[in-house]
Amino acid sequence: MEKWSLMTITVLLALTVRWAVSLGSYSGAGKPPMYGDYEAQRHWQEITYNLPIRQWYFNTSDNNLLYWGLDYPPLTAYHSFVCAYIAKLINPDWVALHTSRGYESQPHKLFMRTTVFVADLLVYVPAVILYCFSLKETSAKKKASTCALCILLYPGLILIDHGHFQYPLSLGLALWAVLCLSHDWDLLGSVAFCLALNYKQMELYHSLPFFCYLLGKCFKKGLKGKGLVLLAKLAGTVLLSFAACWLPFGTDVEQIMQVLRRLFPIDRGLFEACMFSSPTHCSDKVANIWCSLSVLIKIKNVISPRTQLKLSFAVTFLSLLPACIKLTVQPSLRGFKFALVSCALSFFLFSFQVHEKSILLVSVPVCLIINEIPFMATWFLLVSTFSLLPLLLKDELLLPYAVTTPAFLAVCLASFSILEKTSAEDLQLKAFSLSLKGYVSCFKSFPRIARSLFLLSLSLMGILSVLSAAVPPPQSLPDLFPVAVAVVSCLHFLLFLVYFNVVILWDSRNRGQKKMS
User: Fold this and answer.
1) What are the sequence ranges of the domains in the chain?
2) Residue 375: is it exposed, middle or buried by C-beta count within 10 angstroms (0-12/13-18/19+)?
3) What pLDDT, in 10s, does the model give residues 335-387?
């Protein structure tokens, strides 16, 4: 009973923070003609409710794709339709065709915020709670409520979902998939992940770890016996899940192709949201390698779009290959969770058409291992939130950022004593350090070095946050601070990618038979 009481308090606190953040501004508020992501979600409700399914993804007189045209998979469209149906019952003006464009009012804002809140409460929050209760408690591990508090107070997700405006359903479904796999409910986990992928195509960031882990389990069981049966069941489950999601579009090949063209707009080039054609003319700043390099090298002017696509694919594939091979050969839940982090980070850093919000696809898996490597996980989650700063400032979310980020750090310090968890063993680097014994002597002073780098990183992020918010940039470099935020964050992420891959590759422990570690 005590643990449930603590968990109830934890959830109530997390929900209170979410609701408080939702009272502020949102993406594109009062900024015509395109407004922002809030208007995009409202417009999708307008389109899905008023137009037949066959027109949802096509450019017509009633559906101008240049004005927030649907570019997410069918499950997002179905969700928009359900929200629109409820909105129509409350106030038909909210989803009226054409005339509702740019609609803004306090009642409508309350409705839209409530839809996100309910989605969070029904999908994401329960998955976090059950995941934390599934963690095996030992003397070295914290209680479920403590772990849940840190995960649910992660500021990046709160600020984007309840501030900027975004639904947490794909991440919540992916978390349910992880939870199912941790209990050997492989078919249910496959269904949950298929639903996540059919809600947002960015869940492809997590697809290879799911595939490699399940394939590795089939190999381990033997492809001439139980493994072959499991593989057939998994294949059938995936096919049926996709067929159910795409059924309304499956009668027409052109419908399917048009949806795919909307989901994967390869003709836009390597990056669109991060227009670093020059360091003084940028829109949204993404902390990945291509946008950061474009400060020095005008990639879009030097390389053709098709070559950009091939280059991006090659670098992404090579960067995630080691973790995927290791997971396939030695499938374990621990390796699976770390591979989710490593592969998602590779996609974020090197893949095609990345948005700054995509860092959340890395952050949520990092949350899942915060009990194992609290120091590095907390550090990463702070950097990921910092990388969103230009977007948050544009949405007038400085105050929520300034409150939730230090609060999250304080909770992690109190819950995990992260500054005391900096030894090579605490950082899961003991095997790596032993392999370098005799070559590198710095591992003796590694805890002190790690703490110093962490404090230096915090100081740098704090200074850039203050400068970005309070100091006007030089006229000749109007985007100086956003570019600095992106480059500094990118450098952090590259080092984190190396770290996570080292942990994966030097881990010889096979925990495949254990539950959550």
Assistant:
1) 167-264, 265-510
2) buried
3) 999 999 999 999 999 987 788 999 999 999 999 999 999 999 999 999 999 99
